[in-house]
Amino acid sequence: VISLPNNWIWIQVFASYTPGRPLGGALARHAHRVRDLALHVPLALRSSVPARDAPTFAFAAPALEFLSITTCCRPFEESRPTLDFDAPVALFPGGGDGDGAPPRLRALVLSNTCWVPAVPAARLTHLRLEKGPPTPLLPLLAFLARCPALAHLAVVDVYLALAADVPPAGEHAVALPRLRTLALGISQPMLSMRRLLPFFRLPDKGVRVRVEGPYALRALAGLHPFPALPFAHRLTRLALERAHGRLIVCASEDTADEGEEDDDGEGCGLRFDLKEYRPAADEKQAVAVVREVVGGWKGDCADGSGRVGMGRGGLAASRKGTGTPRGRRIGLMWRGS
Predict the structure, then answer these.
(1) Which residue from 55, 84, 116, 260 lies 20 to 30 Å from 5 (Cα-Cα)?
(2) Do residues 170 and 198 make contact, with C-beta atoms less than 8 angstroms apart?
(3) d(CA 152, CA 155)
(4) What pLDDT, on a 0 to 100 scale, did the predictor assign at position 124?
(5) What's the distance, Cα to Cα, between the start and end of the chain in Å?
(6) Mean pLDDT, range 245-272, rounded to an integer
(7) Helices marked H in the chain
(8) Residue 333 has what pLDDT?
(9) Does the pTM exceed 0.85?
(10) 116: closest CA among 149, 151, 147, 81?
């Protein structure tokens, strides 16, 4: 029996998945204190899906706010079951709607898993999906569409299955009206993660998009046309930096100039963080992608040729006249040797 002195102490639980018997029986009397829970699935059980008719844990989780599930195995194993978003697993008995979903859950992390827990999707504010077996595109979009409260979404090295059969984006659009940050991590080739972007309907202000990884730029360059970002007209600053084998391209909003800020004190932004990049080719490609996102912008070299020079030192560039909303100027800052 576990004895805790103070009723106000919150508990963080680390558990290893074991099939056949409910976990955490000793914690049942303290279930109302469990706020964070991390479930580890060992290598030997990497392809096992918990029974959907029997809860994995022996206690309900009325106060659980953060749930993380991590499977120990190599990513992208095609022999494992694919994620089935329409058949979630009830980890806990009861739940807000009797489906085992923790009613106060707000943050979910799925790393390399081949099954999805029952969660209150409409209440989630933080979601991170990372690696795992091939993931069907349309069921993933349908799940994200059930998460309208998301403020922070990260998708990292997720292999989209059957991405070649992509329907028109308008048929399966995912509205994310409260999103503040969207992060895409692409460090492997052939993941087809770029297919996600055209389906997202982002807010027109207060959102930051970050794309990172050695294959990120090449993946994004395959989008023709590049998805229109509703906040692109707000981006008034552009910075490029190369250092320690990384190329960083950041377009941002000058909130002080705008006279407005979002809830976090930051404006809109688009950031490419590229590792292991090819200096000459990727620098030109990065500028081309940003040019397409921030429509109407053209870079000027010091000699006025209209081309963007990617040499050493600093240079200035601006949108041309009426091509810039409110006639604003974009400063292009180049740092690095």
Answers:
(1) 55
(2) no
(3) 10
(4) 97
(5) 63
(6) 66
(7) 137-145, 216-221, 255-258, 279-293
(8) 39
(9) no
(10) 81
